[in-house]
Amino acid sequence: MNYPDQLIAYYQTVAEECVPGLSLDCVIFGFHDTRLKVLLLRWKETNEWCLPGGFIYKKESVDAAAGRVLHERTGLNQLFLQQFHLFGEAVRYDREDTWQRQKMPMPFGGSWPDRTISMGYYALVDYTKVTPTADFLSDECVWCEVGDLPSLLYDHRQIIDVALQTLRLQLNWQPIGLNLMPEKFTIPDLQRLYETVLGRSLDARNFHKKITGLSILTRLNERRTGGAYKSPYLYQFDQTNYQKALVNGNLIFV
Amino acid sequence: MNYPDQLIAYYQTVAEECVPGLSLDCVIFGFHDTRLKVLLLRWKETNEWCLPGGFIYKKESVDAAAGRVLHERTGLNQLFLQQFHLFGEAVRYDREDTWQRQKMPMPFGGSWPDRTISMGYYALVDYTKVTPTADFLSDECVWCEVGDLPSLLYDHRQIIDVALQTLRLQLNWQPIGLNLMPEKFTIPDLQRLYETVLGRSLDARNFHKKITGLSILTRLNERRTGGAYKSPYLYQFDQTNYQKALVNGNLIFV
């Protein structure tokens, strides 16, 4: 079967086996070399990119479908996968234009609903543990820098923007870092992550005071040596308190 | 047309005019007499209750549909209406049982999808400004105490629970109170709201320090008199800073 026929067959199968008119998109964030990255797929035979995503089988929960997509694209069984926004605009993007950029067979033969609403999920993953894996609709699956995104299909640029806003807000009340940081790290390392997500620099003393005040860190009897400055202590996340803070928030009103 | 026929006609219209398989449910919170309340509808000719909700017209955004439902049930044009969770379980509740409790005409004649996924929204509204208005599916629309809920249809008990958890988490990073409190209030009044939402008592000195530290309150040159204790100052929300905090969070990491 040639690719256009494969495509039509794929969408035909989706129309038969999946919940109609609902899709999901996963914004998978990783942190590497002081850069925030997001996992993207390049649409087959084009220079157009999109988020990993998919559809929900008729007897599958939407959350389970998101976990499945994440697993298929990364190899991970992720614990921290979070709904963040339903993209439910009446017209989310220019369909004709998008199909042309995707080199869709036109007129598109599938019995496709007029409108697809998409549930956005985001995940924070360990960059080093991911095996990016393309699906049959795409030529490659790679990490792209959030600050330097390529041309994106659909409304995926907006979906990434909203995910990023959510992540920034989340820093106000939930810890982040458990999956993004290596096992042992210094407070300045962690500050770099917060600064990258927030997109601005933070005062080091203030950050130190606030982050250690959250009881989510354990200081090790180890220092990082070899740097230009005095050797900073290494820290680990306190798993129990971290999980508690993830569920309950940082509890500033306790 | 008798009621069962009306029902069938209604669902037929929904099937024709609305997005298939997707609904929305609104958890509308109000605060009155130190109690947190939620707006509920009593299903026609039964003692079964449910949340205000509805469907999305084919050319309507999901957010706009939620605003429409909120307006129809309360008379309010609400600014703070927030998505909080997509209820996307493969089986959300026992349909047969629910239809029996609703006294649905059986077998139900509509061409109804096997599964309905529901987007949950919550709103915080001024109790005194609401005119609760039943729809044609219900006999009455009233405020019920969150701590003393009646028998609820579908998975609406769970939806309220998740909304409440979201609200509790939100206290960690976003202000609440603007729509829930009267225009002028004392810090102990506001503490009562926080305590009600959190379901536990808070230390008064600590609360005073933290809440005034958020820069969302303006102290007036007025005190409340006539109480048993020394007259406390009255406060108002600083609208600009409040709106900023709503969008950006309380910015504990600034």
Automatic annotation (TrEMBL), chains A, B:
Superkingdom of this protein's organism: Bacteria
Positions of the Nudix hydrolase domain: 21-166
Classification via InterPro entries: NUDIX_hydrolase-like_dom_sf, NUDIX_hydrolase_dom, WH-like_DNA-bd_sf, WH_DNA-bd_sf, WHD_NrtR
Matches recorded under SUPFAM superfamilies: Nudix, Winged helix' DNA-binding domain
PANTHER family xrefs: ADP-RIBOSE PYROPHOSPHATASE, SLR1690 PROTEIN
Name of this protein: NUDIX domain-containing protein
Organism: Spirosoma flavum
